[in-house]
Queue: 4 jobs
Job 1
Amino acid sequence: MAEPARDRTALLAEFGSEAAILRPTLNERDLHSAAALLTVQGSPGSRPSLMGWTDGRAVDLPPEVRREIGGAVRLPSTVAGTLEELSGWRRRWEVLAAFEGEADPPLWLKARCAILEQRLDTLPPQSRADVAARLRWVLEAMAAGPNPDEAARLARLRVDLDECTASGLLEVAPEPEEPLPMEPAPGAVQTGHPAEGVSQAADPSPRTGAEKRRAVLDLLQAEDADGAEPLTDREIARRVGCSPQTVGNVRKSLAPAEPSV
């Protein structure tokens, strides 16, 4: 009994009072109200349900429950935002359970978390933060124990990583390098200013990841055609403005496939 008492003491210090802890948030009120219209009271000795749903995955939610619980509070549009909300609800229930002593979350909370979990498995990543959130979610789910969705989650994570690598989303910008010294124009005085009649070229517009890979491919193919001495990955990366890893990936794609045994 000492452990729960310490938890409550720490929570009181964090929130200020028990009333502040138990006071429902606006989102809690909206979700509770949406669930109240869908709750079906069970027979004596059985628990209430949301139109027959009492627990489990989002795929088993009745369409009306999914629509109302998913729409009562706007769902996040990113993987990172979805994981943040799910973590927030789990933390909220831990806090409430420490004071109310209930072991089972309310139906509206179970349904909301089930919807969030499904979105974590299906939303396409839009940033590095989304990829990191997906990886964190998969690892947390695996740590929780065997799950029928584990194989699908791992497959989805692999697809995400492949797609993000191909699009350049995970590409790390190359480290800045010292610019090469410029050769002065004939007859020009080295004053730090361009010679008269010689214009300075404008900076090229930024390239997309696809354009960079195309430029790398052109340089590599030109080496093969001319029989020139191959450039290093770092030199090609410097010329194109990408990372040496990108050059290495393109170079590997040109290598002939090893014959299968």
Job 2
Amino acid sequence: MKVRTENPKSFRDFKLSSFDCFGTLIDWNEGVYKALEPIRSRLPESHPLYTDRRGFLSKFSSFEVPLVINNPRGIYSTLLSEAYMKLARNFGQTPTEEEGKAFGASVGDWPAFPDSVAALNSMKKHYKLVILSNVDRTSFAKVLAGPLAEVEFDAVYTAEDIGSYKPDINNFEYLLSHVEKDFGLKKDQILHTAQSLRADHAPAKLIGLDSAWIVRGDEGFAMGGEWADYDGKIEYTWKFETMEEISKAVEKDFRQQNTA
């Protein structure tokens, strides 16, 4: 992985920031881990994954990711339910359909990271804000009514709208074409801000889209991919640990322009 060093850019070069949601703005790890508690609680305390949060989330992802990739027109909440059932059965459990449905419907209950709302509202002063997310419209409506209710997005493009899931390059082509149609902006005016290496930064490089990597700590692997697996496949423009950090960097850049 490397940072683009040729032709260094300023945050002032962009007019719009597109965002991945789950893992970047919404704490996927915390939300999913809590919603999977019925399965985890049935494991014997001696099971190696009973107290291994990282391993438990990775195990869930081993079922969720293939379902999403192999069912591009599947509704995300339904695919989540299927992944839940597969995980439980893998542990020798017999989950009820109600359990699976409850997990699929839990998306709106997953918490935002503590800095997400303030950071987004700060960046809103300078950019159009657009969501590009592997989610269905109904589930994301719950997010907009819940943890991100205080943020006004200019557009939301979901996997259900597009008919495929990231990292399919089609999702990013959809982003570019709709941003041009909806806002009259070109690719070089868009900054894609995301945590996931697999779903966002790898295809962003393929399509030539500037990106900011929001690392979000050591658990990003669960849905975003292991760092070592993407060596040479990622070329982000900026790297920050949190949304708070990038929002402050954006604000500083624009403030310098105003005082120049």
Job 3
Amino acid sequence: MKSRITTAAIGAVAIAALAGCSSAGGGAPAGEEGAFEPSDVRMTVPFSAGGGSDASGRAIASGLEAATGTTITVENREGGSGAVGYSHLFAQEGNGSQLLAAETTLLSLPLTTDVDYDHTSFTPIMKLGDDYTLVVVPADSPFQTCTDVVDAAGGEGVVAAVSGAISLDEIVFTLIEQDQGVEFDRVPFESGSEVIAGLLGGTVQVGSLNPGEVLGQLESGDLRALCSLSEERYEYEQIADVPTAIEEGIDVSFAQWRGFIAPGGISDEARQYWIDAAEQYVASEEYTTYIEENLMQPNAVYGDEFVEYLAQNSADLEAALAP
């Protein structure tokens, strides 16, 4: 069983932003006494451009802009498997105009890495939905099933790509190792797009990617999906024929959630402002399009429900990663 992962300490990365005043439209509670009015809103993506987290952050920012009339600037702050971006938000205590496109790394980083925060250090706003992964290989790979991959990992070895040293990819490969009694050789990348490049370039043999990240390469035939790490097969037509790992005797399924958070210590008005905006986004065609184009499950929750979800998901993740 693998030991917990450590990374180099992340240096100070942020300067606290000053909250100013500007008008906000689209149903925002502007004009009321004590109402929150965002200024210079930033959406941090803690990974590089081109991957699933980047797509999620930009979709959320666009949806919130439409709901509020407020401009939201997306900033990629990659590094440390997401720790640089989360550290930046942690330094923005009390600033309701700072947001971050969050996913399972919010929970796995504090469990496996020496950072100064955990999920309770932030203000959860919305879980957008759930995103399982596919085990994929290059088109000319000798592997035809996930069972083939496991057998090779127990023999001559398999080089697996992970987008972040403690990402969802790391988690699912660890769970496969625990379930099957094998071990993968890992090569970490900073995003799903880099994993795809590594697969196509022959740097790695197998990868775990969200369907939305890799659908283009699957449709072009450059990559093949061997199995999905989900409880049931996808209903989306493009990948409905891909078997689950469970069907192949590998008892592993784990979803990555996606959503967004704000810094800790923001006002109740700021928290409610973003929850209201998130609810408007989820009711829009833009949200439905994002979910369907990225082959996700639309399980949105907000505020207190999101807090409860994170607590339970963190406990489940800690149990899964325990040495």
Job 4
Amino acid sequence: MQKIQTQGVHHITLNGADRQTSIDFWEGVLGMPFVFEQPNLDDHDVNHLYFDPGDGRLITIFTDEARKKDSSPNPNAPGTVHHIAFSVSRATFTQVERRLEERGIPNSGHKDRGFMDSIYFRDPLGHLLELASYKFEPPVGFTHAQVLLEAHRIRVARGDMAISDVHLADAIEDLVKRSQESLSDDRGPKQPY
């Protein structure tokens, strides 16, 4: 038996209400370009809208003009989606709370997650969304996930509860040391002053 190896999220499809609500939210609030639409090929009475969340992948929405929007929170039960998180730049993150408040959108305010900063709010249909900004950039040739895996190992070895800046900094240093050769015999910290 072999695994079925995934290579990333292809797309996420949500059930929407009317077409314009989806366009106004996904493009008009979150800035995701509306890239194409067509009928739902499994149900031609439903429309299928496609948005680019910023990485060339897709968020798609099934819309039906007969469905009314309901902003009640979606169920929080086993088998349901808790939230969807989207990446934003640090510069954008510092503006998110104000920009949501300008629209009257309730939100969690800034949440420090140790390795990232987050803010939570609901879309017009009750889906919980998160906008997240990493506190670090991975070294060239590495991904955020690889840095987090290394930071996790460091955190566990030290007996700490959650990843913090020190774990991230040490993880990045370790990854660079292992991946980049040096002519120095001793690559340890020094005090040249």
